Amino acid sequence: MNNILHGNIFSFISKKVRIHFSLQITISCVLLAFFTLMLGDYIYAVILVIPIVLLYFRFDKHLLVILSLVSLLTVTNRLGVELRSAIQIMSFSMLIFLFLVNYGLDHNNFPTLPKELKVFFVFLYSTIIVSFIFSAYQDASWIFIARLSLFFVVVYLVYSTLISYESIKVLLLILFIIASVVSLGIFIDLAQSGFIFLDFAKGTYFRSGGLIANVNAAGGLLAITVPLAFVIILVERKLKHRIIASVLVFILGIGLILSMSRAAYISIFISILFILFKLRRNIFNNLIIFLFILLFLSLIISPLNEIVTFYFRVGDGLSNREYLWAMTTDIIRDHWIIGVGPGAYGQVMFKYFPVMLGSWQGIIFKDLYIVTEAGNVSHNFYLGFWAEMGIPGLISSIILPIIYLRMAFSTMNWYKSINLKLYSLLVGITSIGLGMFTRAHLDNVNIITNGFITTDLPFWIILSILSFLFLKTENVKNKFED
Hints:
It is globular, with a radius of gyration of 24 Å. By secondary structure, the chain is an all-alpha fold. It folds into 2 domains: 2-110, no CATH class; 121-319 and 374-481, no CATH class. α5 crosses α7 (138-160) and α11 (262-279) packs antiparallel against α18 (420-439). The protein has 19 helices and 2 strands.
């Protein structure tokens, strides 16, 4: 019984029997999977986890982490609601299995969070509860609370997989796999459109998020992964690793360019500048000079100016964000203390619509309403929280970046003279925080978006890695103090 509590649940099964049995079960479950999807019966989806669990004994724990997270992050509504639900149940089951294997049922063994994050979660949920009590849209708020809570359970399960420095590599690998899949999906969409990217004659351009319906959410994923790949190119000494990282940046770069997400460009620009400032100061100085020259040339050379203006969609202005911000500030004006309720933005937005429903902007906003599943379309993380949960919500949205950056700078400085690779990784993680929280003024997705796993989990994977390293440093500091 003690072995079960501490994770040795299947130690009684011999290795040879485990492998042979796992292959037989896999073949059976492939057939079961086909009939399950045909019938649309989700309850059997849990059974689909059996072959993966058994193959764990052959391929080690990392296989389950990779399969579960890749499935969670790549299966979207574009592949069908039934298929997505089945795979999400299977992936969630795999993460629970891993948790039990690693920690058993003894809560004393469960991984702890940094106290800073505990404070954030206590304040966030206190804010949610207060706003919910006074909300006139409690049905929508219940759904929001349930989805967000389930999302944070998934985040904690992911965090629990960080048991060694090798685990960090696994999570980074997962992020790179996801971003590559999304980038290739964007390229496939371009191919299906006839490779028409920019049409100067018609004044039109191609935009896609690949598997992710929300283009800006795809841009947010790339804003997280591109800086990490860039760090690898700068610090990796092995040639083959640098080549792999360069190919990765090329693939992600194509997806980034084709997404035409200006918010992602801003985020990555800030991240790259910070990375170069910390790791390659000479390149940073030269880049600043080059950018000034490029800006000057784009102002005086008409063809170059036309290309830059068209590509960066200068003519689009804020892409109708000004209307969304006006709508959000109007909501805040009437509900500035406790908000309209968590997850209730979509319930009131049409009451504050700043344009006619039949206008071009009105059609765009209605499509955005559908894509976000009646979510918060404020296009500003901080204003969105304020509109839904009042002043406490605004404070929550400000506390998160403060905690993130405090942990990031503290941990980064600690590793600077101890471990160059981890220091470089933390430079990348810090740069992501600086970029993403700046981007949050233009987009409210990819941080906390109604508990959407596909859009938000990549950011929280990065925060999980940061928390793991931060606790490592805090434990060492405490030992020195003792």
